[in-house]
Amino acid sequence: MTSKRTCRRVREDLAAYREGWLPSARAAEIAEHLRSCEECSRAAERDAAIVDAARTLPREEPRPITWSEALETHRPARRAAPRPWRWSPALAATALLLLALWEFKPHTAYHAPPPPTAVAPAQSAPADSGTFVLAHASLSVGAMQGDPNRALLMSVEVGTATK
Amino acid sequence: MSEIPALTESSYQEAGADAALVARALAGDSSAYDELFRKHYARIYNFAVRLTGDRDSAEDVAQLAFIRTYEGLGRIREGSTLVKYLYRVVVNLVRDRAKAARRKPWIGFVDLWSKGSDSQPDGDEPVEFADAGSDPSRIVGNRALQSAIQKQIAQLPMEFREAFVLHHIEGLDVKQIAEVVGVPEGTVKSRIGRARKRLAEAMAPWME
Q1: Phi, psi at residue B183, to the nearest 5°?
Q2: Do B196 and A15 touch (CB under 8 A)?
Q3: Nearest chain B Cα to A65, which residue?
Q4: What's the pTM value of the predicted model, to 2 decimals?
């Protein structure tokens, strides 16, 4: 009595059976099954034919090459300098990340103005240092208001007033 | 075309000669490794062809295997033959390439027999046999059957392909295959059995 399940299990073990890798009890079961099952018997014949064909496969003739030629062909490629472009995606991603962090960092910290620096009076500056400071302060105010003419005018007015 | 001689006991008797050449190469005799290359290159190339299914890849793999073996010549243990070492390097190189091909499917292995070799059938259609009949033994010698089998071998999962090719084409026994592919002997037997079952199923249309 054979069932599909028995046949499936026999075919799974067919190669091991034919190679002599199975325990004797299992090998005897399969031998018995093959005597009574035509399908599995044909599968065993196919297996034998495939193994025989594989053993006698034609040999591929390689292109003739010597050891030194093979070495020459592959050495430069294997010892090539590292290719930095391979890292370019990672570098670009890092640069973008740093840029994003810089752009979106919170600007809540108080930035103290730079400490005042002493300005040495120029040769042509008025002798009166108070006049010099006032003239420059008015220039700055004008510049801050975005009107250079006004700044110039203010500095002139200050200069006139102090004379 | 000639048949591939199996790696039998007599072949292993050559291991002593190989060991002497390896010793000479290690001592700085550049002609010794040249001789080893000439002696084994065709076998290693053929093994690579069976695994990759592509002649250009096989050439590349076989030559790289010799270079890697040369670089690791001092590591070849006593009792381990040079040929087994070369097989192991080929297996590793082909696995690496298969992994790379999975990551970049557009540079996958090219089907050897779709390139239009005059002795190989094109396409996936079953090959027509003249007077093949129903007796498989009558079509074993048929080159069309052999080319169909080569094609099916190239489509086996890599671990099944390695075991099948090493056992049935290269002639290694289970213990030697276990050393080459780095798995227990039971796993090798299981892989050979499963490879044969798959081949038998795939080849059924050719052999009915």
Answers
A1: -135, 165
A2: yes
A3: B38
A4: 0.66
Name the amino acid, one letter, at A121: P
| Interface ipTM | 0.74
Question: If 0-12 CB within 10 Å is exposed, 13-18 middle and 19+ buried, where does residue A97 land?
Answer: exposed
Least CA distance to A68: which residue of chain B?
Answer: B34
Give the residue from chain A lying closest to B62, CA to CA: A70
Chain A residues in contact with B200 by the CB 8 A cut-off are 11, 14, 43, 46-47, 50
Give A55 to chain B, closest Cα distance, Å. Answer: 5
User: Which pLDDT tens digits describe chain B residue by residue (208 residues)?
Assistant: 444 445 555 555 577 788 889 989 999 998 999 999 999 999 999 999 999 988 999 999 999 999 999 998 888 866 568 999 999 999 999 999 988 887 765 544 444 444 433 333 333 443 333 344 445 455 545 677 888 888 899 899 999 999 999 999 999 999 999 999 999 999 999 999 999 999 999 988 877 6
